[in-house]
Amino acid sequence: MTALTPQPFPADGYRKLSAKETMQRAQAMNSTMATDTQPKCSGQVHVGMFFDGTGNNKTADYDDLPPEKRKHSNIVKLFHAYPDAPDRGYIANYIPGVGTAFPEIGEKSTSAMGSAAAAGGAARIIWGLLQVVNAPYRYVTTAPLIPDKQAGDISNMQAWTADAENRKVLHHWQDQLKAALAGKKPHVEQINLSVFGFSRGAAEARVFCNWLMSVCKQENGGWTFAGIPLCITFLGIFDTVASVGAANLWGGNSVTGHQQWADNSLQIHPAIERCVHFVAGHEVRATFPLDSTRIKQQYPANTKEVVYPGSHSDLGGGYAPTALGLIPAPDDNLSIIPGMTMYHEAMKSGVPLIAWQKLPKNFKDDLTPTQATIAAFNTYAQDAKISSAAVEHMLEQHMALYLSYRFKYRNALPERMFYKRANKADRGYLQTTQNTIHFRLGELAVGDPNSPDFDPAIAAAQAKARAIAMAKATGIAFDEQDLKTQQLYKIAAAINIKKLTPAIEQLCEDYIHDSMAGFIGMATVWDRGIMNEEAFNSMGIMKFRHVFFGND
């Protein structure tokens, strides 16, 4: 099975359900939705879980900012589209990204360790699991069974314990829930979960589902939680990155970033009815390796993976207007297209999101891309001609086009519009990544990368042939496993300015953020060296993204 390429985005800005998809939604909702709104003696509970990405926070990115400066993620936008009416059985839970404030679990400010090593991820997952305990009780009584303070204390305490102990605690609370609901009306017929996540929040969402299913009981052809039938109807995730503990800074598999809560817990659980994973085609940071939903060479039957153009936050959202000289206003953001498409995928799967016609205008605007963005996205896809294939090969094709663009204008960076629009600090970060391109091509030691006639592919072929000949002459085996050299040859061979078209250049110029440059700007004083990855791994932007599969 292969990863997929996205469909062209509709020119009117709204991806409508087809007749077949409308029927699919009706079938998915048939067993979960009440036929009327009159009070009943029983009903179903619909729970939405929204795990935001590293550094993303609804309060800081949306609530506390004027509209023209907002930078909230697609997770916040989808959270806004989910109804929150516990008395009617609709409960939405938002979990801020690691590295940001989450007062409910005692994190009252930003955290460098949260950003760098995903500290606080386990507590967020456990807090989410406790809200599953709370949801049926809130539906019946309008109050939580586990108050916020107690839930926060449990989350922090259990974050450092073994999986078996966590399961024991969750079984205890299931018993408490069952006893608390005994004899009360309305009777809870079923719990229906929809789970969303971005970045490390996507990793949290995957672990959340696995940990939840590990404490459910399989019976009568389904699963129960506290004796109540439970169903995870949809898992919608954007560009999963774990990087828990030591990050994969040097590439390869020597350090995976799958420590602690991400250890052997990222595969998509077969009980999930449908999983959709959107992947960023232009993300390349070593500390942001992709955790694909593929297991070895196969995708689970309940999963599809789609590769979009753009860097990590061009997919999941989070870039502020004018960052790195791009998107002058929030509604110009490329991330709106995958955000709106995920809304569509969730609706198709029976997630009880607010109908498009009933969404408040400001929330609808958040999911409506501009005509210019739609045109740029569609014409890029048409010209790039990247077909469905293995996800790692699709990532290489997207990144090769971006690096070809940066190489084409290697001696004219100050003349590019994004550079002119960028502030002084961002210009410095962009120059750093441009210098990495120059330096790495110079390491081929074939010709002058600044020369108008320099061809990286030819230079790479000559450099590799020379290295093989030298190894043969000296009797030393040519080491093709040296990651730094291997990546240099591979990247240089992929650079081809003849593949560039005006449409491809426009998306690179106006919409795709250089996440490597932006990462340097996010650094604090103590971790600035780490954020400039080239200083550590000598590769920087000049490499392809590493991809992990299953529980690698």
Rounded average pLDDT: 91
Q: How many beta-strand elements? A: 10
- Tally of individual domains: 2
Largest sheet: 8 strands, mixed
Content of β-strand = 5-15%
Number of helices: 21
* Low-confidence sequence ranges: 525-529
Shape: globular
Rg: 24 Å
Short recap of the structure:
This protein is α/β, with parallel strands linked by helices. Helices cover 42% and strands 12% of the residues. The protein folds into two domains: 19-31 and 42-370, no CATH class; 391-549, no CATH class.
Commentary on this structure:
The structure is a single chain. The chain is built from 21 helices and 10 strands. With 552 residues, the chain is α/β, with parallel strands linked by helices. The chain folds into 2 domains: 342 residues, no CATH class; 159 residues, no CATH class. Strands 1, 2, 3, 4, 5, 6, 7 and 9 form an 8-stranded mixed β-sheet that branches. Strands 8-10 form a two-stranded parallel sheet. Helix 3 crosses helix 10 and helix 15 crosses helix 19. The longest helix has 21 residues. About 1% of the residues have low confidence. It comes from Sulfuriferula nivalis. InterPro entries: Tle1-like_cat (IPR018712). Keywords: Plasmid. This is T6SS Phospholipase effector Tle1-like catalytic domain-containing protein.
Secondary structure blueprint with pairings:
Layout: H1 19-30, E1 42-51, H2 58-63, H3 74-80, E2 90-95, H4 112-117, H5 121-141, H6 148-158, H7 163-181, E3 187-198, H8 200-214, E4 217-219, E5 222-225, E6 228-238, E7 275-280, E8 290-292, E9 303-308, H9 312-316, H10 336-348, H11 361-366, H12 371-384, H13 391-408, H14 417-421, H15 424-442, H16 456-474, H17 483-494, H18 502-510, H19 515-522, H20 528-531, H21 534-537, E10 547-549
Parallel strand pairs: 1-2, 1-3, 3-6, 6-7, 7-9, 8-10
Antiparallel strand pairs: 4-5, 5-6
Helix pairs in contact: 3-10, 5-6, 5-7, 5-8, 12-18, 15-19, 16-17
